[in-house]
Write the structure tokens for this entry.
Amino acid sequence: MNTSDEDLTVTLTVTATCDAPGNGEQLTASDSTQVTVQPPATVPSGGSADLSATYTDSRGHGIASWSWDDGGAGGTFSPYATVQNPTYTAPVNDGDEDVLVTLTVTATCDGSSPETASDSTTLTVQPTVHNLSVSASADPEAVNSGGTTSLTATYTDSRGHGIASWSWDDGGAGGSFSPSAGVQSPTYTAPENPGAEDMIVTLTVTATCDGSEPASAMDSVALTVRTSQHSLSVEAQAAPQVVESGGVSELTAAAVDTSGHDIASWHWDDGGAGGSFSPSADVQNPTYTAPENATTQDLTVSLTVTATCSGSPSLTADGSVNLIVLGVPSHAAVISVEAPESLPRGESGDTVVTLENIGEDAWTKTRGFVFGPYQGIDRWSAPAQAVEENIGPGHQITFDVEVTAPPLSTLSYPAPASPEQPGQ
């Protein structure tokens, strides 16, 4: 075999010694000839070579059949192994050394007494190019100060080698690897980050294969280590921010957590103003229905949203927005009030109230004025009495109502000369 890249010259020497009988002198003679041994053809791993065969038949016969064989090396012949000059595709050589494939061709003549002959040639199949690639990942890719992440490394070796050694490094950031930095997929504990900004730690893994000529490769993944200065801020908005009595406003809330935590819970509150939240007060962006404002003054409702983050420890923060609920303009003046000066508890008495319409519009049944408890003040009770006819501007109307004293004690109340809140 000539495994070099050049022709190899072989000197073949023959020596003959005669068989002189008796005590005759034996003579010896030598002669030499040279044979040139060519290097085998060479292809890369999985490469192709064009094969050719020639023949000489002493009787001038043709060739009835051809057959090529690679000795079970695992290559393929195209279009077939039964043609004179096929193309041979070598097998993949995943080893570290050249592989010599002996290609043998057998020819059978088409004579009446067929003769068969064979010849061989050698093909060198080089190893695959040795490539080792490594990929690194972290889950999660952002952690809190001193938090942990799971590291994973994968690899591909073109020659099918295993990995002899792994090595992880955090560039001197000060974290730690568990169970060690010398395993394929460790757990990494990030260093503390007392600064005001997030820290980026570059985690690098290096792998070395177990081949006879080891190859090494590396890859890196960036890990964000959040600042330990954990704070939570909340902002609230209402649209619109001014509504009519009993009107509706869409509320929105936004939170910023410096450690990147999710918000575990939301809660809205109107400070007891008496409005309602839909679908509930425990969602981030509810719809708020304002309370009725029967006064002539605008009502300011402070809407506060409280957010609690999902961290450990968790933080809670508030945000607020003011909602203006418009009042009802005053359209009435009290002309006179006739009421009992006192009533024993639980007893009733007649009260006559005369009002004048000093507004610009008529009072109608659909926009009726009523007498009755105001905002839950029920120490006195009076049945509601609606306007029963249209009262134009400048006209008066008299209400006859029966009031009942609360069943607590005998109390006296002065009859007001004018309402404390005009319009009521």
Q: What stands out?
A: The CA atoms of residues 338 and 404 lie 15 Å apart. The longest strand covers residues 99-109. The chain has a mean pLDDT of 86. The chain is about 0% helix and 45% strand.
